[in-house]
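Collaborator request, handled under Task 6.
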Amino acid sequence: MTSTYDAYRKLVDKPLGKQAFGLAFMLKAPYFATVRPQIIEMAPNRGVVQIRKRRAVQNHIGTVHAIAVANGMEAAMGLLCEATTPKGMRWLPKGIQLDYVAKTPGDVRCIAETDAADWAKEPPFQVDVRCTAVMADGTEVVRGIIPVWVSAKPSR
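Structure tokens returned to the collaborator:
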């Protein structure tokens, strides 16, 4: 369990705790602030964020830009990895493989998931984090995999 996950668990049940954690999350990884991910869930093997449709994330046809959705999916993956990576290990995304399957006309929920068995390997190893983005009505708009390399933290 990482210090990031510790912080989430300390804040999640406090008034405005998720919002405070979300701000800290964006300070730690400033690029995520471009989509302002609302933290919905952070747990071992699962991360969920919500991206609000607003002008700053829209494309030329008025839908949420596919890369904004990809950014939300990577934020969800980061939450999952911070909550799941074994002590003494680190994670690094190796890429992203996404299929854009529908337009995103409104707010979108980005979900990242793995199984416990994905992490039960001798390091170093790769975990393929499954990602999906869905609208409030359940319509899937993006799906894919973010491969993550998990290895021992370097000694200092």
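The cover message to the collaborator said: "Strands lie at 38-43, 46-51, 89-93, 97-100, 108-113, 125-134, 140-152. The chain has a mean pLDDT of 94. Please let us know whether this matches your experimental observations."
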